[in-house]
Every structure is written in C-alpha cells, then in structure tokens.
Amino acid sequence: MKYSLLFEEGENMEKKKSDISASDIKSNILNYVYLSVNVKGILSFEFINNELVQEMSDLGYEYEEDYFTEQDLEYHYPKSKHRSLVDNERIVRFKCRESSCCLLISKFFISLYIDFKVARTFNTKVNHFLKLLSLLEDLNSFLRVTSMILRKNNSILVNSENKILDCLETRVNNNTALELKRIMDVPKIELYPSSSIERFLWDDYRVIIRKKILRGILEENGKDVKTYELVFDVIGERPSYMIQDETQLLSTIRDDIHNLNDKLFQVFKVNLSIGFLKDLENGESNRVVRGVTSNE
Fold it and tell me: Closest by alpha carbon to 169, among 11, 1, 2, 4?
C-alpha cells in the first residue's frame, strides 16, 4: 500500500514523507520497544524444560524465576489490567546477557522488552521472541493468541520552541501555541507541560498515541538552559475481538507483528517534520539536544 503524506512547508519539496521507508532510517529516537501477546491455554512453568532453557541460552539469554514487578508493569499497556499481578504473579524471565532486552513468560501473556538505549536490534529480538513462542507451542499445542500489543516509546530533548517546530508536524500535533509560533512568529510564547491522547481503529488494529511536552533545565557549559522533552508513545493493539478463537499461536502472529510495526512507522512519519525525518535518514540531527541515536 502506498501512503500519500503531506510535504512539510518550507522544506525541500523533492522528497515526500511517503518516499522514506523504515529501512532508510539510520538513526532513531526510541527509548524502548515492548511487544506482548496474551494467550489462553495451559501456560504452566512445568513446560519450561532444560531443552528450552538451553535453546534460549544459545541465543544469549539467561534463565531466572521471579515475581511480576512494578517495573514490569511500567511497560505493559494498559497498566490497570495487570496491576494485581505485582508481587503476586510468578513469572519466568529470559534476560539478555548484555541487559538490553528481556523475554517474560507469565500464565497470561508472553512479552518482549528491548531497551533501545542499549541495543537497537528490533528484528533480531523479535525473531528470538518468535522462537520462544515456537518452543512453547511445541510443548503445548493448545496455546492460542487472544490479543497482541506493540508499543514504541520515543522522546527527544530540544532547547527552544523553534526547535519543536523544526521536529514536529504542527498540523498533526494540534498545539495552539506552536501554531501561533509557526504562522505569526510570536516571540514570547512559552509552553507549559501538556499531554494528549489520540485513539483510532486502522483495519484490524487499534492505535493509541500518547504525547507529552515536558519542561526542564539542562546544565550546559556551566549555565542552566531551558529545555523541552517531547515524548511520543505510540501503541498498536490487535484486540481480542479481531482474533478468532481457533487462531494458532504462530500461524498469524508473525504477519501481525509486521503489519502493526509498519502501521506504527506510518504514524511516526506523519507526526514528524520532513526535515527531521531526513535527519534520521542521514543518521544525525542538530535540531535536538539529546535523543537521536544511531541504528546498529
């Protein structure tokens, strides 16, 4: 499917957002990626045998048993659905030896967390996640997927309102103060902390976009510099009512991850200016103070 997206005013009109693919991007603004599938069936830790542990060890993961924690809850969406599990639900973790990611197994869901400040290898880690699902399905053929969530948490730090305008597509982000700054160049605009949530259904997937603008101070060359942190948290979900009861664990999940990841990338592109997207394509940006990191 070809997406036709608007040009950013004042930028080079030779290249459109629709011309930029995920493979073109050489840097990112990700904090973390979270992928989770809810399952039904008998997901007992008795199925986790030495062979499974060894296969995951060969991929670079260490096995540990623990209880569901507040930190685990932080990445899961929605939090309210799993708050009762904290300190009560026994889980198994397979943690990367370099502490960049974690695969988690509970009775109700299987999840993958990738710390993108440490490791930026989405496809490799997703393949490990799919491998774990395959091993669990081999041990218990009754497992079924009931829903799936993919979450990508992004943020950047900038030092002025003008830099926000340089990075964001203001017509999409719907901020009155920024629009006044853009069209009238109002000199004394200063933003207060704000947040917004947007929800919509795209084909068989539910998309939730949570945006925040936070104010702060950064010490630079011995001086305090005003900064804004722009948080862009985009969540895609394949709800349970979109998945048939007879769905096998792996028969559609790989395609679902691919389709959902592509949709979240389109949402990502729509919300950023073409100029900033070109920076990410080139692998560096002078529009931000912090937040842009090179892909591996």
Answer: 11
**What is the C-alpha end-to-end distance of the chain, expressed in Å?**
27
Spans of the chain, pLDDT less than 50: 1-13
| 201 lies in the same domain as 182 | yes
Query: Domain residues for 116?
Result: 42-142
Q: What distance in Å separates the CA atoms of residue 118 and residue 137, rounded to the nearest whole number?
A: 30
Q: Who contacts 35 (Cβ-Cβ below 8 Å, separation ≥6)?
A: 111, 112, 126, 129, 148, 149, 150, 151, 257
Predicted model pTM: 0.87
> What is the per-residue pLDDT for 48?
83
d(CA 239, CA 246): 15
Q: For residues 276 and 279, give the distance between their C-alpha atoms in angstroms, rounded to a whole number.
A: 5
Per-residue CA distances from 57 to 33, 62, 198 (Å): 22, 6, 40
Question: Residue 98, CB half-sphere, CA atoms under 13 Å: how many?
Answer: 12
Identify whether the C-beta of residue 124 lies closer than 8 Å to the C-beta of residue 130.
no
Provide the 10 A C-beta neighbour count for residue 93. Answer: 17
Do both 185 and 281 map to the same domain?
Answer: yes
Q: What is the CA radius of gyration of the chain?
A: 21
Tokens of 43: 């997901």
3-state secondary structure of 262: helix
Assess whether 183 and 267 both reside in one domain: yes
Q: Name residues whose C-beta falls within 8 Å of residue 126's C-beta, 6 or more positions apart in sequence.
A: 35, 112, 257
Do residues 280 and 25 touch, judged by C-beta distance below 8 A? yes
Q: Are residues 131 and 170 in the same domain?
A: no
pLDDT of residue 264: 96
